[in-house]
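Try this one yourself first.
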């Protein structure tokens, strides 16, 4: 059968045409002249209207049958009533009426086409509406409807109630159409936990069989279906309590509070369904992961963009490149030669010309301001991105080969972006607009963006303060409610120490600026641990400690756990970037767990620099899953997504693929939660982000649907 509407009915028979005009406006244009137009039901049109009423409703039934004959084609009407129940005016009558409503609604759930069951609270006494409301939240429905009257006088009410079947089978005049308003109270009403077994419960079959198939009186001496539902609810509550107790055991469990309110079967599915172990499910898993709300805590502006995106950023300087080419012959000659080699796709000559040090581009043509030479280089590849990829990545063009290449080589892969390209307001603007789009595609609602203003002062922004002001201007320009962007300023341990001091002084000065203070959340000690230990920056970081600036320290990426110990005890780190060697020091790991210090893990860059690989490949075992089992607060991040050719969504799946046995949905949601709870923004703002993420997550989990094997978040993703 197609769409079915189940409604109760009292003495106001007109409610059925009012509902049908909303569900089937093509058959009954009742509201054609209504202002405002109520639209139509999102669950689509009906084929049948099933009505639960009392034995005293003969006159209303006759009027409705007369009305239906005037509709083309006529809707199928079925009436059921409790035999001998003239009115629902006693506790016993109410109980018997509820039993009949529940039976009819359950039968409709079994017979209606998927997605087309509609229930209405509009008909009859409040006790009748309450019975339908209970049925809706017991068995679920696709749309829960109501009709609101807007009578301002008794005369208007009387006039409407005098309308007959003929008048309600055509469009109402404007003054009458405005007096009633059908509304959708709720879409996709989730069934109660009992429906999982109730819909196929053999016990219910005889009770449904007692319903006359075409409608009629139903003798009800007792209420077995209500009793069955009550018992199943008690059992479900007991199961839920036991499961939640199990989930809450141990101080290490830290997830969205929402998860403890979900039905037990969903909780069991979340813990039992694994990601990252079935290649054929990769696209569906990515689709589900992409939909999740996320926080990104470890992402560098200088490594954020793919080569195609760096060319797009370079295009912001097209007019200046052209102008300087007319002024400086060397730049024009450089562009002409480069353009010819690119058009000829002569990769060998390009490599002989530039070698593997593309940083030299910045100084190649004296007198040309940065970043114009780099921009000119990139623009030559505008229509030849694959060639640019082969030139930059070489044998690493296949991302699967980027494994264990070390920090120095990894960093060189980003020579064309970061401080090579972001040396002007124009390129910064284009980059930050691209950043916004990238984050929105991944459903990132909170971002802590890492950048180094002292590295971007060789172009038209001649001081770190000017760079920072430009960044703040552009962030205000792209501000939107869906994405909260904060700043972490980087101190580079492998650069000139004077540049590190400039960053610390910049922070100290800018903290008095309210616009900066609103965006700024902390500092980062970044770069190769091999070049300088964390303890070497203790004195330099003293002003930051005095101002209680939050710190995240890159530590334990390529170096032993001693590096992490220094970050924690010498620099008072609030978070640790990477922390891959933490497992080497069990006591230190225990301290991290006790103090709830988060570790920012970045699977693709960890794989590229250090050499972790999927368990089946026999590579080094990625410690993320071990950390979760120990109760460590772990976050998943993208680090340098442009260099790694990844995204935050893909990083969650990469984390699962690198972890022995994959990651369960439950573990993924725990990682998502950690991303929000470990954020450096103020407590009240962090709480608001968690609340909004949880609201969005609730819709994702509860709307995922029913699969053949039970509830699965991937059902919707596959579709």
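Now uncover the answer:
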């Amino acid at each position: 059968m197609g769409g079915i509407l189940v409604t109760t009915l009292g003495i106001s028979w007109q409610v059925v045409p009012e509902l049908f005009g909303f569900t089937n406006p093509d058959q009954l244009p009742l509201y054609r002249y209504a202002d405002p137009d109520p639209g139509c039901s999102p669950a689509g049109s009906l084929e049948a209207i099933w009505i639960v009423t009392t034995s005293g409703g003969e006159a209303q039934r006759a009027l409705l049958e007369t009305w239906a004959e005037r509709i083309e084609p006529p809707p199928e009407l079925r009436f059921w009533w409790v035999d001998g129940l003239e009115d629902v005016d006693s506790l016993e009558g109410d109980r018997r009426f509820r039993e009949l409503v529940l039976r009819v609604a359950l039968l409709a759930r079994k017979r209606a086409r998927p997605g087309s069951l509609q229930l209405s609270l509009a008909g009859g006494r409040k006790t009748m509406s309450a019975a339908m409301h209970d049925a809706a939240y017991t068995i679920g429905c696709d749309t829960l409807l109501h009709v609101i009257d807007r009578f301002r006088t008794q005369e208007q009410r009387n006039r409407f109630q005098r309308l007959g079947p003929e008048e309600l089978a055509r469009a109402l005049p404007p003054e009458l159409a405005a007096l009633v308003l059908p509304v959708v109270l709720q879409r996709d009403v989730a069934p109660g936990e009992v429906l999982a077994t109730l819909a196929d419960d053999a016990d219910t079959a005889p009770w449904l069989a007692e319903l006359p198939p075409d409608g009629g009186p139903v003798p009800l001496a007792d209420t077995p279906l209500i009793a069955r539902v009550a018992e199943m609810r008690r059992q479900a509550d007991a199961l839920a309590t036991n499961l939640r107790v199990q989930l809450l055991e141990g101080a290490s469990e830290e997830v969205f509070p929402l998860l403890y309110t979900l039905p037990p079967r969903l909780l069991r599915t979340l813990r039992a369904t694994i990601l990252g172990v079935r290649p054929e499910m990769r696209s569906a898993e990515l689709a589900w992961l992409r939909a999740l709300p996320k926080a990104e805590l470890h992402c560098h502006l200088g490594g954020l963009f793919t080569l195609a995106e760096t060319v797009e950023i370079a295009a912001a300087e097209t007019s200046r490149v052209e102008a300087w080419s007319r002024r400086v012959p060397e730049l024009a000659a450089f562009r002409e030669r480069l353009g010819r080699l690119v058009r000829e796709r002569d990769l060998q000559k390009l490599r002989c010309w530039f070698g593997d040090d593309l940083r030299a581009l910045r100084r190649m043509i004296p007198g040309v301001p940065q970043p114009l030479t780099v921009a000119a280089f990139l623009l030559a590849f505008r229509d030849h991105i694959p060639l640019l990829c082969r030139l930059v990545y070489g044998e690493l063009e296949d991302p699967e080969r980027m494994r264990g290449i070390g920090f120095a080589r990894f960093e060189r892969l980003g020579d064309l972006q970061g401080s090579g390209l972001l040396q002007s307001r124009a390129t910064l603007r284009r980059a930050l607009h691209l950043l916004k789009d990238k984050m929105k595609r991944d459903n990132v609602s909170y971002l802590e963006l890492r950048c180094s203003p002292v590295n971007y002062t060789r172009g038209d922004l001649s001081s770190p303060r000017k760079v920072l002001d430009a960044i703040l201007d552009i962030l205000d320009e792209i501000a939107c409610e869906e994405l909260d962007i904060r700043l972490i300023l980087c101190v580079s341990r492998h650069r000139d120490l004077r540049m590190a001091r400039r960053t610390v002084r910049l922070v100290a000065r800018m903290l008095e600026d309210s616009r900066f203070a609103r965006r700024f959340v902390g500092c980062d000690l970044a770069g190769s641990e091999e070049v300088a230990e964390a303890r070497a920056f203790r004195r330099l970081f003293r002003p930051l400690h005095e101002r209680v600036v939050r710190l995240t320290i890159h530590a334990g990426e390529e170096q032993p756990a001693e590096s992490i110990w220094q970050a924690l005890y010498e620099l008072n780190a609030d978070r640790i970037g990477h922390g891959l060697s933490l497992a080497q020091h069990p006591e230190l790991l225990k301290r991290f767990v006790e103090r709830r210090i988060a570790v920012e893990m970045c699977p693709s860059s960890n794989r590229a620099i250090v050499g972790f690989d999927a368990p089946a490949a026999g590579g080094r075992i990625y410690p993320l899953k071990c950390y979760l089992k120990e109760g460590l607060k772990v976050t998943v991040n993208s680090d340098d997504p442009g260099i790694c050719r990844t995204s935050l969504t893909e990083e969650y799946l990469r984390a699962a693929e690198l972890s022995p046995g994959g990651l369960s949905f439950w573990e993924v949601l725990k990682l998502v939660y950690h991303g929000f709870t470990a954020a450096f923004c103020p407590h009240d703002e962090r709480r608001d982000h968690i609340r909004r993420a949880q609201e969005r997550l609730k819709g994702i989990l509860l709307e995922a649907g029913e699969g053949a094997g039970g509830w699965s978040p991937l059902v919707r993703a596959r579709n």
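Discussion: The longest helix spans residues 224-248. The longest strand covers residues 180-189.
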